[in-house]
Design a protein that fits this description.
single chain, alpha+beta, Arc Repressor Mutant, subunit A, BirA Bifunctional Protein, domain 2, SH3 type barrels, seven-stranded mixed sheet, 10 helices, 28% strand, binds biotin
Length: 322
Amino acid sequence: MQNNILEVIRILKGANGQPVSGAEIGTSIGVSRTMIWKYVQALQKRGYSIESIPGSGYILRSEPDFLYPELITEGLDTDIIGTELVYYDKVQSTNDIAKQIGSEASDGTVVIAEIQDSGRGRRGCDWCSPEGGIWLSVILKLSMSPSHASRLTLMAGVAVAETLRKIGVNASLKWPNDVLVGGKKICGILTEMEAEAEIINYVVIGIGINANMDPESFPDDLKKTSTTIKYELGKEIDRVIFVQSLLSTLEQHYIKFNTGSFDEILQKWIDLSDTLGKQVCMVTPVKMYEGKAIGISEDGGLIVEMADGSKETLISGRCMYV
Ligand code: BTN
């Protein structure tokens, strides 16, 4: 959106429900009040409820429940994550877009969409992405070995769980990429990377959060296994504020990650874990393991202790509770 329109939003928001005249807004931006009326109409089309009181001015009654970049940017306290935002009302998959633009994009660029037509989950599964959710992908440009990429999945999980806990949703983490509430999935994370000859060009962390929707609206196979923020809190959240808080938390961890302090993130993952201490069945492409989840390795792998006392560290695979 143009800067002038953003200025109009800023001025109307700053008036806290009091009318501001078109002439006053025009003077402060340096355009005519006819132009201000055009901006107001554009905003109304975009879902802003702006009342026009003849002889008095414009009042901003409510902002739309959309994840418009200008709404997210206003009040975002990050220096890296989300300073570039790419917005779509509908897209196939934010991870696909992030991978298309990844080479040119700057570190921390976020691709966000209201709806994904072909949202992707792990192991080639579909990811149900209707309106009301938070579907975003973060492009990270960092130099590390591809074998450390799963650390980033854990980092993102910690950031999501912490952000959910801040709003009163008691989230915990299931290895490697699920955020659960009461045993049901509220968020999934899909980390993908572009690497050549053991050097990572960029990593895309796709985060899908079931936010302002009802679990009953999900397809039958997900109804029993998934939950949403709206269901857990009994009310809808302001998704813009949630995204701002998530990006800010993610950035704090990313900075630690980049300065080599993965131990701290790992400890947070352990503290938030739902998996450790549980009997698990791990399905990998080559073998199936059953045992107790006893720890997380430096590379973000799950350490499983088998009945005979032997231990395996599994870097990838499907983890099921038994
Ligand atoms: C999983 O649990 O299987 C991972 C789900 C990841 C979903 C997110 S939504 C945003 C991003 N775009 C996608 O297509 N997938 C990820």
